[in-house]
Amino acid sequence: MESRADALVGREIELQVLSTYLTSPDRRALILRGETGVGKSTLLDHASELATTTGHRVIRAVGAEAESKLPFAGLHQLLYPLLPDAEQLDGAHRAVLEAAFSGGDGTPPSTMTLGIAVLDLLSLATTSKPLLLVVDDGHWLDIASAEVCGFVGRRLAGSAVRLLLGMRSGVPSAFDAAALPEAPVPPLSRQAAEQVLDGRYPDLDPQLRERVLAEALGVPLALVELPPLLGSAYPGHGLDGGSRSGGGSFRHRFQHVYGTRIAALTPDVRAELLRGALDGVGAGAGSGPTRAVGYRMLDAEEAATCGLLDVDPVSGDFVFRHPLVRSTVVQLATPNERQAAHAVLAHVHRHDVERHATHLAAATVDPDEQVAATLEAASASARRRGGSAAAVAWLTRAAELSESREDRSRRLGDAAFVAGQAGLLDQAQHLVHVGISPGTDSPAAVLASAYVALYGDGEVRSTHRQLVGAVESLRDGTTGGPPETLARVVNTLLVISQYASNRDMWEETDRVLTSLGDLVPANSRLHHDAWSDVVRRGAGLAERVDRAFVDTPPFEPWDVALLCGAAHRVDTLGQYRSQLRRALDRERAGGTRASGIAMLHLNHLDQVASGDWAAAEESGERSLELATARGLTLFSYQSRAYLAVLAAMRGRLERARELQAQVDSWARPRGIGLLTQLADTAGTIAALSEGDYEAAYLHAIGITRPGSFEPYQHQASQTLLDLVEAALHTGRTQQARDHALAAQAAGLPYISPRLALLTYGVLSMTAEDEQEAAEMYARAEAHPTSATFPFELARIQLARGIRLRQLHGRRASRQLLSRAAASFELLGATAWTERALAELCAIDLPARASALPVTSLTWQERRIADLAASGLTNKEIGERTHLSPRTVSSHLYRVFPKLGVSSRAALRDALEKLPDRTSA
């Protein structure tokens, strides 16, 4: 293997990068990335020595393939020397570290909570001197450790801690998404490669020298190891002339070099090396001291003599000289030898449930219920510590070793459920469709199958039937499971029913839940009332949501999403904005999955309601991007639906209708009523925005009939203002009044603050008596939370201003119309701003002294106005412009107030007074 001097030859740039890194106040994390044998480890050694000379404390960890499935194994290496300092942490952070490293009965730590605890521990550790954390072979770190290290690495600015990692090029790892700065470690230049080769082999045959230089391609390890492999000029390296091998990668050639040396060892030493390799003994000096547990190789001097092992200078333990030595030892062993080694290691780790299970599983070939139960216990331990990926792997292996078909199916179902909950949809789908035997599905398997079918392809009909059957099986005792299983199945059934938004499905769900009686958890009852029919079940719901937030923290991510969803249904989500965003930050830090996307949707809805539309656009686009990338098709179309509604509100009508069409064409054949109703909502608002009130009315009654609020229709109450406004503008005054009175009779003002604002607003708009209209408007505007719904309030102000103008003239209406126009402009609702400004123009255009710009006619409006002024009917104008008569009427409705006229007869004179140009 190359010496320190060999590896530092030609590394002037890399050495300068490391020197700057260790002294710069800005850069706190750095990844050195390069191919096998390029000298990353030696550069890490150099950085460690340099940091020590400049007063740093250095802690090193080494990733090992054998430990890549053990949750937090890598993080434990890094923090083990610091754990005594954990006693000084506050109770919450100390508990988080204990949960990660030893498990417990509490909530598994998230990446964010554990990362914050680690940052506090590192802060304590640097009170006396700065700290350098060095991780070699970072690509082999377990996923949970890599996620926490990435979280910590992004937040070291201003601290006395630095994180330096060595990573192999071309090997995927959890650090790929960490967004940490990187420095490449390329192969050596030709001149540097010659210097290394000539320093190690000064008398090398010229022809062989050229061949080594050509094949090594500047990789230091190849420069050192290839000469004895390619020629017989150097006996004593374990190869003769017959070992020449023309092709093969560097890894294969190095493994041939090491394999020849390993084969020459005695059986006992080979067995000792195999146990060390399978247990993840470190490779390279400095890898030993941070290992709190692990196998220690003994009586292996023979392997050290032939260059396979080194002795760690601190611990005195044997370590592998290079990771390729370790992997070669494993590859050369026979299956029986590996099983025997794992059996020994299982006994060594008999008091560590996860390590014991890992080795026991590898040592076992035939089904063994005791081993399967041990693996199941290890999976539970991993889940408590936040290691979902390891939990899935152990449950899958436990299923393979199960003695009965029922236990196998149950464990595969549990594995699929854990994968589905963690957002590992591909794994869940594989386990559901390939591994679980028909007819023996456990509730967990049914849940996992439902996750895959619902979120993967929007399947609500079959998943509803499956979940109903699972609830009935749990009720009747046909299947068993832990206490939380019933709550999970019930909540998933409610989610499916919400998406279906179908009366028959909801009535079946109601029947099943009624049959359960007191077995239904309180929060599940809350979710049911919020999501099924808020008009009929919403009284007192806001108070129940508030109690649930107070009484049952902390929450799992899905719990937060479900409760915030209930809060959204009663329009109190803004009260829990901080809880939602904290949970969302935690999900983002851990790699946003299904629950995180659900929370992004809720965050988007909160931003829309509060008027932060630019941020809402970003949240909606982000949720669409994540859902698409993760194959969560249902969520991707839900994101499109929300973006369609927002685009319609902002007056971006082409975008709104494009998204509306995409959502409707995908969701309607699948019977996903929630999304088709959102598509109709987008169509309603888009039509209202451009003044096409007939189209708006038709879209709105597709959601609910005038004068009623269809049971189990998700958007029935939400479309109250839209339907009434569309009805009024199309001359359907009685239908508008009936709908307003129905809202009052249904008690909507007592369900949510937004529904109170809308109910009083539409009662004002439809009242024949002006005293009632004024009183209802006053109630709407004076409602304590009216300002938290700026779009709805501005629309009610606009409607009231128009009515006042018609009844009392310009003085009475100007203030309201100006306020509405200013609110719309601040929101970015361009079409609504234009309408409010047109109403202001109709009051007194010359006298108006407002900072808001006067809006001229669009090209289309001017064209239609000219045709109308020439005496053509709406039908004749439509034939010439390829528009419907209804659309022509809508355009003229906007043109008249802009020009300050009230009839076609006055159009010609008004148009002649306009300048020749029109707005685009």
Automatic annotation (TrEMBL):
GO cellular component entries: cytoplasm
Signal peptide start and end residues: none
GO MF entry, a single one: ATP binding
Limits of the HTH luxR-type domain: 850-915
UniProt entry keywords in alphabetical sequence: ATP-binding, Nucleotide-binding
PROSITE patterns: HTH_LUXR_1, HTH_LUXR_2
Gene Ontology BP, a term: regulation of DNA-templated transcription
Keyword Endoplasmic reticulum recorded: no
UniProt-listed InterPro entries: AAA_16, P-loop_NTPase, Sig_transdc_resp-reg_C-effctor, Tscrpt_reg_LuxR_C, WH-like_DNA-bd_sf
Name listed for the protein in its UniProt record: Regulatory protein, luxR family
